[in-house]
């Protein structure tokens, strides 16, 4: 399917033909004779599927990297490549190097060595880009408008006010040459463990503590390598494929990260350390600086905690509020504090105390003149202008330093999505202000260390599979389109004409389509037909995926007689879909509302007319129903079976709605940057969801081969007001992205391969769709301390005498079940606390972690526990960080009778809450990177972990779906000399699996086995991480599973049998041995749990 | 050494049986019979089957030998090599009789349609004879098991052999021979020597016979089955009303034992009775059809005279001129007789030997001592204790005052206190009197309104227990019934109301004032403010009911002193858990309610302590909160709700639910302490197969899910079943010749180790009645019912004669402790009871759990919902 707005986005129209031509040339060089499929393979970025890729000469690798660098995301789609080649070769002739025959073969016409030809073309592109490169202009004196957000308590959307700025002549900063980023040469990185230990010893001496050396030597002693058995004394981090270092939680990975910082300074190798969260970044950077101080080295400019300038202030505020370490607070203030010069020049419509910190309009100053005169008639909107103080502003100091620092410490999110906001010069290329953090890191650092690499993969998955509510009955909340509409009205006249027009068109057509659609759903005009009676039995709600194109073949088959206009072909019952139906193309034209009616055969026009009318906003209101009847009458002679006809009509209508709706989605994706610049908050939200797909990725599309949109509709038969239509987008290939970061992405970003070292406790678990990194660990520390992990099932009886289960329930029943579970759980927790108090030394391991699935359920559990007799003061409930802001301050003096609250991102403070004994937190928040330590010790404060509710990821969530597909396709992936065929195979596998996932009944037990296993593997990973919370400092970890759903053997979806299946599967694939090496103790605990239930 | 009435019996001596194999054709024909749905258990429908029990009875009747039809094959035994069977009996049945009986039965089942499909097939079949021993499996491992029918027929040859010789009884110079007659179920009767007795007030006559029942039992870890002989003294009805079983004498043949039903008559018969009894299940018709004779049931006047050919068994407990029980002397004589008579194959009596020379101890007896009060109140989990006395009649108040006086500083003088105030008896013990005239109301009372003023008392932090006067007349007079002035039994409603307020209660029956005074009720009830005379000394004679009522109340409140810790040291602060299970009918009123059962589950935990200063606390599990509550609170919580858990049952899914429930409860106990779990063997073994003798050490046991991380969890199975635990005969350690009576078992823990090395523990005792009450129950030691001297007949024959009883313990899991330690602990927990001066049948935790169950207002009664709905309709 071709993508609208493609040319618009790719900048210069000269680039795409050249990119394609060089792809053809490289295909000719590597896989003669060249074909479209081969050329597509090269631009798809999935180079790792090619068996020779890693053995290619460096020259070729760089050339391929350059090709990818210039290739925009849409070209990752095979059909697009095909269409564009056709267009450029046979159409406008802008691609003259190749001719295309009708078998998809490319005939070279350039008469050169294909490599030289490609080089020439790529050079040309470089020149074109250099010529057209432009920076955002710096605002000169004059009047400007911008929108600013006003900070607001709670998680409400902050109100936006328009700010008018007047810049005077003297509002300029000193001219400073942009910082220069120098690409370091490619080197192999060798980390000698002895050196690391020595460094650690030095730090210990300097700081007077002694735990680093002992921790590290213990860690290194247990170290095993993929090649050498033992001992490992050098970590040789090869560039290219990611190297994974797997060690149990609490074994000293973070100490190693810290020492690696000063090691990098000493070895003079720039290193990037990628940590999960901002708080980790701050802490790590500060620690490294302390170490350097201890060595007598002035760390200024050597270590940079890099985070998005926009969140810097927020992080600083957090540190000032909660970090107990005074040194750290002072240090952070120095690092992150800045003052904005703009407010002095600003007047706002309403009285505004302060701007939302970090949300200053640094790069979005719109000239106020654009409202008048010539500017309005300009075709292009005037670009937003940059604050004149930006080059010296403290807000961007870290970004400036990052260009030269030896140690860059940043977060997963910033690494993956961050940009350098200031203009920088990269090598000898022109100055740019759109440098991605990823590129900066790739260029500068021969070694990138990713902490929690499996979590990084999961994070990437989360940002590549996203969803958006399009219309939702009579609800006003969570309707970004509605908000966008309102804001667009507010911005009337402020936006440049063309942008405004584009926005209005996109927003209103999307709204109109989706709202008309749900109206039709709610009143039954559209709806699951009555034909399959069993589907509606006992199901008050129906939620399902709709992919409109999926029905094309089926519809074309059922309408066979009609399309052929031949009553002789009439059949009376449903036909199996005929993939080779001669009418498929015709059918597509019929339903495509952009195709003119005149282009259709005479006998189809009346249906075509009806289908076009239904999405026509000017039809008389309420006519969907009439049109449905019209279609029904029209098809009456052609599809005689009444129920089948109803189904056909229904699907035709849906197809008619969703096709155009899908196209508006692409508009959002491609216009996202422009919309984001419009300064409208809700448009920004939409752009945030759909926008990432427009950011350049080396591998833009995963196994599905294209960016996909799918719709979900929720129909509540009893509550029409809840009818909902949402859209989900899937793109990217996070699994391959992570494993090929140092090769494919690195070559594309900087023309070199890079060493990437991933650290984790759970990076290897074949089958786990989110967290399994698809490469065997290079080094690992076996988890071998038998008996220190214990998994137990402790169901509590519910009020009906059955063991209570929450998972699988929803709505009010779920809340009730959670409350009663909390109530009945209390005696067990009370006993456990008694036992912990008696057995543990004071302060360590005398508390409990009660893990749940959501913040809401945490609150319900707490309520239940209090009902059961728990002292409210002994409970600490995690709440959404955003909600916490509102109550902050009250909780410090919380009275005995109130449940204490703790924001979800600050669970580490739990041991410091006076009297708190039980921490109730969502699993996702509690499972990772969290050190809940007893005060003044390195030992866990958590004695046992109770998992109250079985977490089951919703297959409805786009990121989950993406993860399932990606990991499933990779499970049997192999490299191949004909990689385009391998891609085709993966695409097929993905297609089948996708079909299976989205069409199944929406119950856990009806999912495909492989999916259930994946979910179980994830759960195991999650529990291994979770038990790590209790094992920190070498203490034993006990996991208690409360929800009866964990072991309820109905439908073979209980955890024990899934774990047994997993074991069989791992044994079959040969992974079991390594798994047992990696997670021996914990895994054995799970196996014995599985065998005993 | 202690001998018993159980005998290990070599399999070779089991004899042989005749079997009619089940052919495919017969099976097909059988399935075509019109079935009827005899029961429906909840939603689980049993397959339909024809009422063939009648055919079996009839065949027994016509052949004079026991017959088992369609024996079920026991599912645990793999008997592929044995063909399925239609019938099992001792000797082959005369084909003519068989044909005639089966054909008649089929005609009756088909409601008169004489199709005759079965009889020809049955006659064609080749009769086979089997050695019974060939059906036994698992004998080598000490876990013998056999098909279900085996247990019914294996005793036949033993009984037959025993019946050949009469039992000679002699005492006091009198000697009689009891000849035995076998009935069609395999029991032996002393048919020819019925015992007769009559009383003057009321003027009644009664008859009884000795009966011997036989039961195959397994002993843990024993390779051979044992035959347990159960002697009973069966009393005969002198009127047909409500009877269920009749024995018919038909000459030389076996006694025909038949179930009877009753039909209303249109006109009263010659006796003036409007009901007529008839033999159920077509038996009579078949027997008649077989051409033998007419079956005539005796008339009521026959029964009064013991005339006619039939005798009818007394339907239930009632006042009767003859007491129950055969007496210990009879048992001894029987034991000797068995050993004399059955010589081949050699049987060996099951005997128990004392475990050690150390006797079980009972250091403390009697009422709670004043000095121990504080300790006992501490054990309830509360600081202060209030006894709330609800009474209507002054005399009851006086009695209670007298009973409680021992806790005051002047135990010899009655308490002086006013009503409606908390009066401090001692330390933290208070008493609060309230006069509640409504107790005398002949109608049901809305107690929540009546007692509303008391509510403030229930809301303070004092633990309250109620001692309530009750008026109970088991049989109101006709006048009272007609005038509707019969006292209403308020106990259930009042108890339930008090439970709702969280109060446990104990009732004290009003004592009729001595005849001499003849004080009218009204006068007595006026005396609410009338304090007991200061000068009056408390009567010399102890008022045992009042004292025991107060003792029981303390027990219910969990206020127990240190007598248990003193007698039973428990190591490591283990928690003693009692699991009490009982199946109860869901409802007797709602349709099909009687067929639906539910399980009552009470779990009690005694938190022992090694510190002598801290008392043992008793808690009971409350499913509503998934927590173990202090005893009083827990009993109230249990009594508030409906009894029993629906869907819980003894088998299959229901058993799984029980297991889950119990495991969940056990999980809610403090996790770091060892557990010692006591279960009743009979109630629990289908739920936890590990308690079964045939799966010893293999199947599931309670606490399995907690048995991790080396936690010590011991399980002791306590068997009190009369039929299963070998009945003690006498203590042979004493020289028999010197004794008047058979020697009593001593206060030892006895033991027996089986041939495969499994030890069973055993405590045996004479009952309290046997030992006390002026020897009323001891007559059976000197005499037998048949040889009682004429002078003693009037006095002793109407008394119940007690035998020795026994409890058997089996350590199913020792949790790392020595078995002997656990057995001693269990025995000691029975021997030193917490609240009275004799043994309890169950060890303390199990005893408490059962007591909680019994106190439930729905215990063996209509369900609470029904009461509620009744209440709604009441004004």
TrEMBL record, chain A:
Superkingdom as given in the UniProt entry: Bacteria
Name assigned to this protein: Helicase ATP-binding domain-containing protein
Automatic annotation (TrEMBL), chain B:
Pfam family name, one: RNaseH_pPIWI_RE
Protein name per Swiss-Prot or TrEMBL: DUF3893 domain-containing protein
Residues annotated as domain pPIWI-RE module N-terminal: 7-353
Annotated organism of origin: Nocardiopsis coralli
Domain pPIWI-RE RNaseH: 576-857
Basic and acidic residues bias locations: 512-524, 533-543
Ranges where the record places region Disordered: 508-543
Domain of life of the organism encoding this protein: Bacteria
InterPro entries to which the protein is assigned, alphabetical: pPIWI_RE_X, RNaseH_pPIWI_RE
